[in-house]
Design goal:
Blueprint: H1 9-21, H2 24-49, H3 55-67, H4 87-101, E1 106-109, H5 110-117, E2 125-130, H6 137-141, E3 148-150, H7 152-161, E4 164-169, E5 174-180, H8 185-188, E6 195-197, E7 207-209, H9 212-225, H10 231-244, H11 250-260, H12 263-273, H13 277-280
Parallel strand pairs: 2-5
Antiparallel strand pairs: 1-2, 3-4, 4-5, 6-7
Helix pairs in contact: 2-3, 2-5, 5-9, 5-10, 9-10, 9-11, 10-12, 11-12
């Protein structure tokens, strides 16, 4: 089976070169950045569902997700660490700003969105769905400076074929995969259904994110295309279903799952996401 990937051979070579050049200290710092980014997405998700949530409630929810119930829940977190800039966030904001300044509609998807809506996981990349922008490829590529790798040829090819291209922040190796909106009825409405989430941007500016229903459907389709073997994709799907629960539009999910040919996977995901009776007692 051909391995499903969203990274071009050229971009993969750039990433390998990025990591080869990094010092061990720099790699360690990136791990810390990845951890803080996951905590930030988790906090944004909690406050998205409960705007009045306190810092302590956010902390307890994080611990419950990763350690479960236990005496550690009552341990004081001590003094709050001063907030640190998160490089992953800065890269995402830079990319979103470049698209916005060039008048190109887009929205965050992938594991960043599923971490916001469901269970956060550590990631070194972000997905972006973009409307087609033929004729503006060079204009967009020029918006990124020397710290970014953007292949103009790949951008043009993605627009022509409704495919994807990669934007890489070379100092950190953080990658943004840009998927050009396809012509299918489902895809044509994706950006119309996007939601604005201010807690994702440290400055509080509204950030466009695909809807939780569309994230589930996208990941179900990607899971099938990948041979139904990706535990990470399946875990992301279950996380969104469990955390969002009745907030999800079930009729919308049923309609488009049938249209995309993933109704069977949606049914299985719903069953897997439902806790056993003894867990609800």
């Amino acid at each position: 089976m051909t391995r499903l990937t969203d990274t071009s051979p050229e971009a993969l070579g750039v990433l390998i070169d990025c990591y080869r050049r990094m010092t061990p200290g720099r790699k360690w710092a990136i791990l810390g950045d990845t951890y803080r980014f996951a905590r930030t997405l988790h906090a944004a998700g909690v406050r998205d569902r409960n705007p009045s949530a306190t810092d302590e409630q956010v902390r307890r929810d994080w611990i419950l997700l990763h350690l479960g119930n236990g005496p550690w829940l009552t341990v004081s977190s001590g003094a709050h660490m001063p907030p640190q800039p998160i490089e992953h966030q800065q890269v995402i904001v830079k990319v979103l700003t470049a698209f916005a300044e060039n008048g190109i509609a887009c929205a965050i998807g992938g594991s960043v969105a599923s971490s916001l809506y469901g269970v956060p996981r550590y990631t070194q990349d972000a997905d972006l769905t973009s409307e087609p922008f033929p004729g503006r490829e060079e204009q967009l590529a020029r918006a990124f400076g020397a710290d970014y790798h953007v292949s103009l040829a790949a951008v043009r090819d993605a627009n022509q074929k409704r495919g994807s291209f990669n934007i890489i922040h070379t100092p950190s190796g953080f990658k943004v995969d840009v998927f050009i909106q396809k012509t299918r009825p489902f895809d044509r409405g994706l950006l119309d259904r996007r939601l604005l989430k201010p807690d994702v941007d440290p400055s509080g500016n509204p950030v466009p994110v695909l809807s939780p229903e569309d994230i589930v459907l996208h990941k179900l389709e990607w899971f099938r295309l990948g041979g139904k073997i990706s535990d990470r994709q399946w875990g992301d799907i279950l996380g969104v279903l469990r955390v969002q629960g009745n907030r999800l539009d079930a009729a919308y999910l049923d309609h488009w799952a049938a249209d995309l040919g993933v109704a069977d996977l949606l049914a299985k995901a719903r069953a897997d996401a439902t806790p056993p009776p003894e867990a609800t007692a």
